[in-house]
Amino acid sequence: MAINQHQIDNLINKVDIVDVVSKYIDVQKKGRNYLSICPFHDDSDPSMHISPDKKIFKCFVCGTGGNVITFVQEFNNVTFFKALSIISKDYNLKIDGLNEGREAPKHTTAESRVLEINKAAADFFNGLIISNHAKLARAYLNERFIKKGEISKFNIGYAASEVELYEYLIKKGFEKKDIVNSGLIYSKGISNKCFFENRIVFPILDDEGNTIGFSGRAFKEGDEPKYKNSMENIVFKKSQLAYNFSNAKKEIRVKNEILILEGFMDVISLERVGIFNSVAIMGTSFTDFHVKLFSKVTKNFKLFLDGDKAGVKASLKTAMFLMDRKINVTVISNKTGKDPDELVIAGETNLINQMIKESLHPIDFAFEYYQGQYNIKDSNQLSDFVNNMVEIISHETNLIVRESSISKLSNLTGINEETILNYFTKLKNNPVISEPTPIIEREISNVYDEQGFVNNEMIEDHWMAGPDEEQGGFFMESLNDFDQVVKENHQAVSPSNNNKSISKNNLDILFARAKAKKNFSEAGIILDLLKSNENLELIEKNSVRFENTNLKLIAKFIIEKYKSNNYNGDDFQQIANELSNFNKKLEEVIYYMKNILFLEETGIKTKKAIEDAFDKIEVYKIAMEVIEYKEKIDSTNDYELQKTYLERIEWLLEKIKQIESKWRE
């Protein structure tokens, strides 16, 4: 059954967009509208406007805009239908057909049963924490300054030996085989004992808030081991632990950075002092699973592991792993020898905030740390120092940073740069740090990725645009940014410059704008075709210019309907229904397109406007080429090659100007 567009329109009209946005970020009233820091780019001054009357939002810096569905979709990095599902559930609005096979179930039946058992067990443990059985456990938590509010938020519990978890779960209607699969019990004689007996229990959740397992903390003298985690099972994978991520996602997105900690006690303590964007990997190695999960909300990772030698070693290993994957990673220099939990208990909140603010690039951190570990006047220690420094420098993908670091190492040690480079080259021939992608991760099917609308696709909406922007002024503004990038490149691409890195800010912003305009144009073309066949011949002729493959298929589908006299135009619901039967993925894409142009006054009506829309798609493709050539400039230290790439960028920018000049005719 296809979704009815009228129900979507009804949801947009009924739901207060300010109320929804306020659940994710702080907003402030200004006149009839509201302002907020934009969560979709690195923003310091409020640049996102929210209009409760028009039921829309727009950032005037990065171009992201749309209605309430767009905001939830972009903020959570989910599909259009998933965003629709989130809002309809939160506001108890019915959307017929929404959950009918449009997204494959994330969990198998067996996995779902274990998750249900885990949730029931978590509530069972949490209920026992306030019982007489847990007096000593509560006393221990009090000693660790963990109060009622934190016990409630993190659902902390206690596994009392006097009360049988197994019997409780059986009475709740769960079957023994499923309870066994959960790993929560083990057999001892004729009894079924709880795996976490006499321990304080901390539930571990996945990114959607499902309880996937537990960690039991011993608190009595002589009890070992100190921590006891769930055994690996069909839902609990030690390589995929990210404690508190489901709670922290909102703050991570708003701050545009994630603090990566060692243990859950560190997370709980940092929350106590107002730091809400932290996640604990619980002593496991950082994997590609974590990179993929965290990158959905930020590309800025800060490592705040323990300050002892083992913690520093883990920080550097993780940093190199992330550098290989081009993640913007910094390391928090913790010289206290204490972990974050201990620092909070010691009342060092100001120091913690200062350390977070002053986090270092991994190479700078390594320079600082290893200089304190080695006496470089001693030949043997000098060799170890250089070995360690060259290893971490070898993982830096930005050649400007890499070369400046080699120069710094040469100046510090007195070793010739050529000697360091020779050693560096030998080391680079070895494989980089890598983690195998877990099989389960490779099998996850993400329709959103296939649609091509991932990673904050920017939706340009003309609801606040002035007349100049309608006539192409938007791209003139973008070209000013392009020109600024070219100037920066000219400054950076010079034989004498070893330290200046090329700024990405202007390029990132203009690319976001170009992407927004491209999305708006593609949506306008499709909806023009839906309305009538007046421009059919022109659209068919240019259909190969669509950047998105799915839109090419949709355009072809509609054109064939016209040609076979099975569609008379101006009936969005007919095409949506037929696409629902033909291809669920394409159905979602067309609803997504409709949502971009949800205000009726926007759209494309003339042949000239259609031609301009296809040209704007071309501008986006050219912008992608500019990005590629800029990355090539960053990845080589060959001055002549850099000049060649820069000339190519300038030629591409000239192409954009030529295209834009047609819009003013």
From TrEMBL:
One term under GO cellular component: primosome complex
Report the record's Gene Ontology biological process terms: DNA replication, synthesis of primer
Record's cofactor remark: Binds 1 zinc ion per monomer.
Q: Which InterPro entries match?
A: DNA_primase_core_N_sf, DNA_primase_DnaB-bd, DNA_primase_DnaG, DNA_primase_Znf_CHC2, DnaG_bac, DNAG_N, DnaG_primase, TOPRIM_DnaG_bac
Q: Which residues form the Toprim domain?
A: 256-337
Determine if DNA-binding is one of this entry's keywords: yes
Q: Which Pfam families would you find in this protein's record?
A: DnaB_bind, DNAG_N, Toprim_2, Zn_ribbon_DnaG
Which HAMAP family does this one have?
DNA_primase_DnaG
- Domain remark text: Contains an N-terminal zinc-binding domain, a central core domain that contains the primase activity, and a C-terminal DnaB-binding domain.
The record's annotation in NCBIfam families points to: dnaG
| Name of this protein | DNA primase
**Which species does this protein come from?**
Spiroplasma chinense
